[in-house]
Amino acid sequence: xxxxxxxxxxxxxxxxxxxxxxxxxxxxxxxxxxxxxxxxxxxxxxxxxxxxxxxxxxxxxxxxxxxxxxxxxxxxxxxxxxxxxxxxxxxxxxxxxxxxxxxxxxxxxxxxxxxxxxxxxxxxxxxxxxxxxxxxxxxxxxxxxxxxxxxxxxxxxxxxxxxxxxxxxxxxxxxxxxxxxxxxxxxxxxxxxxxx
Amino acid sequence: xxxxxxxxxxxxxxxxxxxxxxxxxxxxxxxxxxxxxxxxxxxxxxxxxxxxxxxxxxxxxxxxxxxxxxxxxxxxxxxxxxxxxxxxxxxxxxxxxxxxxxxxxxxxxxxxxxxxxxxxxxxxxxxxxxxxxxxxxxxxxxxxxxxxxxxxxxxxxxxxxxxxxxxxxxxxxxxxxxxxxxxxxxxxxxxxxxxx
DNA sequence: TGCCAAATAGCACGACCGGTCGTAAACTGC
DNA sequence: GCAGTTTACGACCGGTCGTGCTATTTGGCA
Lengths: 196, 196
Fold this sequence. Notes:
- The structure is a homodimer.
- By secondary structure, the first copy, chain A, is mainly alpha-helical.
- Helices cover 74% and strands 0% of the residues of chain A.
- The first copy, chain A, contains 9 helices and no strands.
- In chain A, α7 packs across α8.
- The longest helix of chain A has 26 residues, at 118-143.
- The first copy, chain A, is elongated, with a radius of gyration of 19 Å.
- Chain A binds chain B through residues 21-23, 101-102, 106-107, 109-114, 123-124, 127-128, 131, 152, 154-155, 158-159, 161-163, 165-167, 169-170, 172-175, 178-179, 182-183, 185-186, 189, 193, and chain B through 21-23, 101-102, 106-107, 109-114, 123-124, 127-128, 131, 152, 154-155, 158-159, 161-163, 165-167, 169-170, 172-175, 178-179, 182-183, 185-186, 189, 193.
- The first copy, chain A, binds a DNA duplex through residues 2-4, 7, 28-30, 38-46, 49-50.
């Protein structure tokens, strides 16, 4: 890897941490440059625009999400074990060391929901893809006979997403000590209601 | 009402609309002044600081939430009907005419979850209060014999909040046409599992 | 070792930010 | 209709923002 590419990676890594705490708009080129120890113009030479940098950050985040959540869950046996593993790793993602401020997608979702543009499009695309992965895992569990045949996979994915959103909310904002117990109990109930 | 108080109300009303779209930080004194048709300095004379203005906006939003969601639900009979009414009005709140960008608390939650200060404190306080109202409604439903005795009211409130968060997410960000059907089906299942 | 390209820094710009201040206009009670 | 207060204005401050343009330094290869 060339020196430029290495620097670029350092910048995006730092920007990703900032974005998890302050959101994509919280990334300021000046502060980011100070964080990685270089000049604002030197940093800016690596990107066409701030928007391009934000897109790179989102892409890096989704690549990391695949590493931390999707890939490990795919190692598990098809059916309910894999569904459970996805959920477990999703909870891990929220407190992952590389994201001091929590899930960067949650922050970006609130920022971008009324702001059309490439960043919003990319975010929606990845969220949709993740929901599809969740629904597909549920469908596999149906085919494996673990879940009942009339279960709606898309609805099941929606319910999973909702619970994780509630968990993030309770943990990050409300500092609720019962957040983890609540989300686990609720998820267990959801899986139980999905069983054949 | 004096002229000053009327102007102040107009400002807060406009700021509330902006905040629902762009968040509390999206309120800029200059743009806000332009929106209500007055000078920046003339507007600023009504508030001690921008942070004070943000607090006023949050307070106005919570007062409106009580009007739109809490009060109407309290008219319903105790027990399950009231629980259902709270949920229904909560969905109405998200698409309320005075909030073109959706629930202002959702936006503020994402902005403030890592930013300590009076605004965050106020938001947490109101969210906690609302969760308490939800839990209390569930407890009343237990006492009325509508819900089973071993139901955990706090968990039930958490599950409701989660579903609404999922609904907002699916509707605002993903433009999911099934968002409303999903959230209603999921809520019906939740209530069914809570029944005695 | 010298050269060329890649990488970084310096500097300036226009725009916008929250906030201050002195002053003028408009309202209100007598 | 006058006096005093409330309300609003315009000019301006220091600061930060994203983003050009140009110069300087650095690093790999002949």
